[in-house]
Write a structure and sequence with these properties.
Helix content is 42%, strand content 12%. It is of the alpha/beta class and 308 residues long. The protein has three domains: 125 residues, Rossmann fold (3-Layer(aba) Sandwich), CATH 3.40.50.670; 60 residues, Dna Ligase, domain 1 (2-Layer Sandwich), CATH 3.30.1490; 34 residues, no CATH class.
Length: 308
């Protein structure tokens, strides 16, 4: 494949690898569908091709004296997670990755999304609780590895803002207790592994409605019981029948309503995830005493169930 890219970025001084974030999207958009079609029709050749890639990857890793990297890790670096439905925009600016729970919600989100700017990554249920998990379990967790592979920025000291594949990372879960738990696990993961992602304002929480309220030709959406009562008491007439329905999950919400209430930038409500006063020092003031990083860490450990 021959391509021309403006302002390319390469890895290291030897320039052995192109690392421009938008280049990955351009290549994927050009070959992914055709390659997937070929693989489905030629599974045996596909297995041989994968084995060839693995061997070559191991040879490169050996030459670079990186024997600690496993074959599985090397293979994952060659492509994005298969369950990721990417957007078509080549640059990270203006793009969004929606992290959703399960294939059902993922299917509705794929129909509701803006294909140009919005990508979808479904997760299988509740992810690993990184506040109490060992480093070995964290490295072996496929769901979290796929998540970071899709985001592209790396973790810990290896975090690279320039490699971030999306401008906004949006956690979109059901508006119930289980959804809140999944969102908490994800926020804990990002706080532990990519704190700069939060500090730089990239992490958001979608606020899907819990109720749909209809009276006549008007439809209202409420985020919780209190909001529902407020709408009924202050905005609706008692003379006309009021119909109230509760959403059981994002997967059961029609794509048109999911787009209108949760994914459309002009109509949705997003909550930016922040850690206030993360880097400040302790003070002697008794009023609004700021939290140190250590205190924040201890709070996260307590809330997420780590034994101390």
């Amino acid at each position: 494949m021959s391509t021309f890219i403006r302002d390319p970025q390469f890895q290291g001084q030897t320039k052995e690898k192109l690392v421009s974030a938008h280049a990955n999207k351009l290549v994927e958009q050009a070959i992914k569908d055709h390659f997937d079609h070929w693989l489905s029709g030629s599974p045996d050749l596909g297995k041989q091709l994968i084995e060839h890639f693995i061997v070559k990857a191991e040879e490169r890793l050996s030459r670079r004296q990186q024997k600690e990297v496993s074959r599985k890790s090397a293979t994952r670096k060659l492509r994005l997670p298969g369950k990721l439905t990417d957007c078509s925009l080549g640059d990270a600016s203006g793009t969004e990755l929606f992290i959703v729970e399960g294939d059902s919600a993922g299917g509705s989100a794929k129909q509701a999304r803006d294909r140009k700017t919005q990508a979808i990554l479904p997760l299988r249920g509740k992810i690993l609780n990184v506040a109490s998990a060992s480093a070995e379990k964290l490295r072996a967790n496929q769901e979290l590895n796929d998540l970071m592979q899709a985001i592209g920025c790396g973790t810990g000291e290896n975090y690279n803002e320039n490699s971030l594949r999306y401008e906004k990372i949006i956690i979109m879960t059901d508006a119930d207790v289980d959804g809140a738990h999944i969102a908490s696990l994800l926020m804990t993961f990002f706080y532990r592994q990519t704190p700069k992602l939060i500090e730089n304002g990239h992490l958001f929480l979608a606020m899907p409605p819990l109720f749909r309220i209809t009276q006549g030709g008007q439809t209202y959406y409420a985020k919780d019981e209190a909001h529902k009562d407020e709408i009924i008491n202050e905005q609706l007439s008692s003379k006309t029948k009021i119909e109230i329905s509760r959403f059981k999950g994002l997967g059961e919400m029609p794509a048109s309503q999911l787009k209108e209430t949760t994914m459309c930038p002009e109509k949705r409500n997003l909550l930016k995830i922040t850690v206030p006063n993360l880097d400040c020092l302790e003070t002697n003031s008794m009023k609004s005493k700021p939290m140190t990083r250590l205190e924040v860490d201890k709070t996260v450990d307590t809330l997420m169930g780590k034994k101390t």
